[in-house]
Design a protein that fits this description.
Number of helices: 10
Helix content: 40-55%
Number of domains: 3
Number of strands: 14
Radius of gyration: 23 Å
Shape: elongated
CATH superfamily of the largest domain: Periplasmic binding protein-like II
Distance between the termini: 46 Å
Strand content: 25-35%
CATH class of the largest domain: Alpha Beta
Strand order of the largest sheet: 12-7-11-8-10-9-13
Largest sheet: 7 strands, mixed
CATH architecture of the largest domain: 3-Layer(aba) Sandwich
CATH topology of the largest domain: D-Maltodextrin-Binding Protein, domain 2
């Protein structure tokens, strides 16, 4: 039975990483050993699970079905072992991807308490606003701020962030302070990740909804870039309150149109491994959901 469990573990890692060499590095095995194990699994099952090419492996339809079931089997086994040992026995490595500012200000400061609870766990952090190939990177959890793209990944909502409008004092001295959303049409606006340089910003005030088309010359691919651009006086930016509160408190940015509200954004944990994460991943997700929802 242990050989079959190893087959499942190796196949899962190959399927998630898209190659024998990456899976071999993750599992401290040789590439020929990984290839042999998967080949023996296919022979025993009598079906092709992987399509091999010179550049990358792809799952066959049978391979996709088998991968989903294999994940469930190993997750059930981990659940049973953890129930016998107790939750404090969680072990292994969690690969966590977080956006830069939200990760540094909200996620990373909370990790010590979680790791103190589970001393046999290790953490690998990927701090970036770029949307990496999470499967190729072997990420267990990725924290995303904003609307989720359609994907086969599992997801869990962690928190909701209010958003606000802000600009530097130097910009407002030169261009004036907008008093209504309509005034924004006469201002330079800064666009962050996933923006295209021309957007409709929607404001609410009591029961009234106001939409304004705004434009600008600055489009930045990261949260720190948006803040730096706004602080430098390049325009007006929309920032989640949790990601701009320090700059507002210091006076580097001034909140605008505070009698209006912008649509909030959600924070999600997504699981590239599918909707049934391992016990250690589930434990971290529950911890973040509990602590972030009250921040």
């Amino acid at each position: 039975m242990s050989d079959r469990l190893q087959e499942l573990a190796v196949f899962i890692r190959v399927g998630e990483r898209g190659g024998f060499s990456r899976a071999a590095r993750d599992m401290n095995l040789s590439q020929p050993s990984v290839s042999r194990i998967v080949g023996e699994l296919e022979t025993r099952l009598g079906v092709k699970l992987l399509l091999r090419s010179t550049r990358r492996l792809a799952l066959t339809p049978a391979g996709e079905q088998f991968l989903a079931r294999a994940r469930e089997i190993l997750a059930d086994l981990e659940n049973a072992e953890d129930a016998a040992r107790g939750v404090d026995s969680l072990r292994g490595t969690i690969r966590l991807a977080v956006p830069v500012i939200y990760g540094m200000r909200r996620i990373i400061p909370r990790l010590k308490e979680f790791l103190d609870r589970h001393p046999q766990l290790r953490m690998e952090l990927r701090v970036s606003d770029a949307h990496q190939d999470l499967v190729a990177e072997g990420v267990d959890i990725a924290v995303r701020v904003g609307k989720l793209r359609d994907s086969p990944f599992g997801a869990r909502k962690l928190a909701t962030l209010q958003r606000l409008l802000a600009a530097a004092p130097s910009y407002l001295e030169t261009r004036g302070t907008p008093r209504t959303p309509a005034d924004l049409a006469q201002h330079d606006c800064i666009f962050g990740p996933n923006s295209l340089g021309l957007e409709t910003w929607i404001f609410r005030r009591r029961d009234t909804v106001v939409s304004v088309e705004v434009a600008g010359r600055i489009h930045v691919d990261s949260g720190p870039g948006v803040l730096a651009s706004a602080i430098s006086g390049l325009g007006i930016a929309v920032v989640p309150s949790a990601m701009g509160e320090e700059e507002i408190r210091s006076g580097a940015l001034v909140p605008l149109l505070t009698n209006y509200t912008l649509e909030p954004v959600d924070v999600h944990a997504i699981f590239p491994g599918g909707p049934h994460p391992s016990p250690k991943v589930r434990a971290l997700t529950e911890y973040l959901a509990d602590t972030l929802s009250t921040s």
